[in-house]
């Protein structure tokens, strides 16, 4: 799942070299980009992600830990 999150993170931010421990907001993310990211996460992972979840878990590594229990993998 971290790979999917990282891809969506990079695409949303337009930053090709973002890593799992890079902070979303330090890379230029804001509430508008976070809203777009939340929509993509819901679409691709099928989980109920909120803006608050992104704000409280601003790295891919943190967000992956938060979302992992909710994601059902085939």
What's the arrangement of secondary structure elements?
Layout: H1 2-13, H2 31-45, H3 51-56, H4 60-67
Entry keywords:
mainly alpha; globular; 74 residues
Task: Describe what you observe in this structure.
- The chain is globular.
- It is mostly helical.
- The chain has a single domain (2-70), classed as Orthogonal Bundle (Non-ribosomal Peptide Synthetase Peptidyl Carrier Protein, Chain A).
- It has helices at residues 2-13, 31-45, 51-56, 60-67.
- The chain is built from 4 helices and no strands.
- α1 (2-13) packs antiparallel against α2 (31-45).
- It comes from Actinoplanes digitatis.
- Residues 1-71 form the Carrier domain.
Find the CATH superfamily. ACP-like
What is the terminal separation in angstroms?
12 Å
How many domain regions? Answer: 1
Task: Assign the CATH class.
Answer: Mainly Alpha
Radius of gyration: 11 Å
Give the uncertain stretches in residue-range form: none
Number of helices: 4
CATH topology: Non-ribosomal Peptide Synthetase Peptidyl Carrier Protein, Chain A
Order of helices and strands: HHHH
Biggest sheet overview: none
């Amino acid at each position: 799942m971290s790979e999917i999150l990282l891809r969506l993170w990079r695409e949303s931010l337009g930053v090709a070299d973002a890593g799992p421990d890079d902070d979303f907001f330090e890379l230029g993310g804001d509430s508008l980009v976070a809203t777009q990211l939340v929509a993509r996460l819901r679409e691709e992972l099928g989980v109920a992600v909120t803006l608050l979840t992104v704000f409280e878990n601003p790295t891919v590594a943190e967000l992956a830990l938060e979302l992992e229990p909710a994601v059902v993998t085939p």
